[in-house]
Amino acid sequence: MSSTSAAGPMTRPAPPSSQALVLLAAVAVSLLLSRSSHVAAGGHPDYADALAKAILFFQGQRSGQLPPDQAVTWRSNSGLSDGSAANVDLTGGYYDGGDNAKFGFPMAFTTTMLSWSVLEHGGRMKARVRDARDAVRWGADYLLKAATQTPGRLYVGVGDPGADHRCWERPEDMDTPRAVYWVSASAPGSDVAAETAAALAAASMVFRAADRAYSRRLLAAARGVMELAVQHQGKYSDFVGGDVGAYYQSYSGYKDELLWGSAWLLWATNSSSYLAYLYSLGDNDGVDMFSWDNKLAGARVLLSRRALVNGDTRLEPFRQQAEDFFCRILRDSPSSTTQYTPGGLMHKSGYANLQYVTSASFLLTTYAKYMAATKHTFSCQSLPVTATSLRALAKQQVDYILGANPQGMSYMVNFGARWPQRIHHRASSLPSVASHPAHIGCQEGFQSYFYSSGANPNVHTGAVVGGPDEHDEFPDDRADYARSEPTTYTNAPLVGCLAYLAGTYRT
Asked: Distance between CA atoms of 72 and 170, rounded to whole angstroms?
């Protein structure tokens, strides 16, 4: 049939070729991904949209055999022989950031914070609570294997981190040594063991109603790992070898993890034995940050839940210490020790600063919840503090991350009108196996992709990067890992913040 109309020069365009249809579909998908309802009707960011994306991020960090419902389709199976060097199964879990090693210490903190997000704010997640539980389970499944496969051992890492960082290759292609690291009575690691106990205990409560048998297994493993942490004390980076400590050693020591793990087991078991142990760990050290390394502020806020909401006066000292933390981070507090950028962002470190912002914001929103429920207030010397005060600071920090900043840039990938295009992330920056089936070698990855000025081919939706510097500057440079690398422990506390804000500021 001719495409020319009998009426004259007006023509009907020819049907597009199959190649053109593929191109049109690709453009449509690209437009859909780049479009974001990032501003809600109330003028604030669309927190529900950001929440969905923050949770989806974890699928892009998965290691192991991916499930049939995997939504991040540019990732494929990886690390399927992990653990074989020690004759155990250590497949699964998460890659912590843009590399391909698996570090148990930050993975456990990630799982703890995802669990706490669900426990405190799951009611505000609506349909997303199932996705959040799936994210918890992916981490908890791995930690359960790490804690129970060999009696007396906790496996704490897979992959030679030095060799891994000398390569730029997809997880699906990695051919660097997958060495296995563990702690035990003779090679103690109270920091990583107590953090793993916290993660397993917290996850056990997430699944207490949904999967009772799984919950009981998690809690039993938590008790066992905590016993290892308490009875055989030491820093894991002093014993495990493999230069693991160069990446994730606990600079704050391990007493904060012992407090943290005990606090979680107290909540999970209500056993007075953990309460008694908490007092032996109590100290008055003032802190103004909360992270995968230093858990003091988080443990104190967690214990304050019991003091405020349950009226347990035995934990009043921890409530006072928690409020001291907030006095150290509130901008107008006379006792503030926290620097802010000209644009209003908390600035704690030149490396991955947003991890400290999201963690602090989680504590702000969570303590605000406790305060609102009990009509509690406190003061930072002459400054009165209310639940509204804490919530306002958390909202301002999250809004900054989502685009309300001098750069006009969202630091969450694929949220808002402008976001980082060249994140420091191997799987995102290299073509997927589906689009490029051939193996991409270690150095080829550097030469052909790492040094490219082009945008990453795979959009890692929901990834929150390290963020701007103390002057609100952000270069969007793949080589600048301090500002351009996303991590699981940055996103995990943000999930809880976004759920809280989505429930408070509805569209």
From this structure: 15
Residues ≥6 apart with Cβ < 8 Å to 104: 143, 146, 154, 155, 156, 157, 192, 196
Q: Which helix (H) or strand (E) holds 291?
A: none
Query: In this structure, what token pair is assigned to residue 244?
Result: 């693991």
CA 144/CA 443 separation, integer angstroms: 35
How far apart, in whole angstroms, are the C-alpha atoms of residue 97 and residue 477?
A: 16
Q: What is the pTM of this model?
A: 0.92
Give the per-residue pLDDT at 395.
98
Does residue 205 contact residue 268 with C-beta atoms inside 8 Å? yes
Residue 283 is predicted with a pLDDT of 75
Q: Phi/psi of residue 45, each to 5°?
A: -60, 155
- Non-local (6+) Cβ contacts of 54 within 8 A are 412, 462, 464, 491, 494, 495, 498
All structural domains of the chain with their residue ranges:
37-504
Catalytic residues: 476, 485
Question: Vertex 467, ends 242 and 435: CA angle to 5°?
Answer: 70
User: Cβ contacts of residue 176 below 8 Å, gap of 6+?
Assistant: 100, 159, 160, 163, 164, 166, 167, 442
Q: Could you tell me the maximum CA-CA distance found in the chain, to the nearest angstrom?
A: 93
User: Which residue's entry shows tokens 């992916």?
Assistant: 138
* Residues facing 346 on adjacent strands: 340
pLDDT in tens, 388-416: 999 999 999 999 999 999 999 999 999 99
Q: Does domain 37-504 have CATH number 1.50.10.10?
A: yes
Q: The tokens 């103690």 sit on which residue?
A: 188
Say how far apart CA 353 and CA 298 lie, in whole Å. 17
Residues 338/348, Cβ–Cβ less than 8 Å: yes
Percent of the chain with pLDDT over 90: 87
**pLDDT one-digit tens code per residue, 308-325:** 999 999 999 999 999 999
Give the residues across from 183 on adjacent strands.
Answer: 154
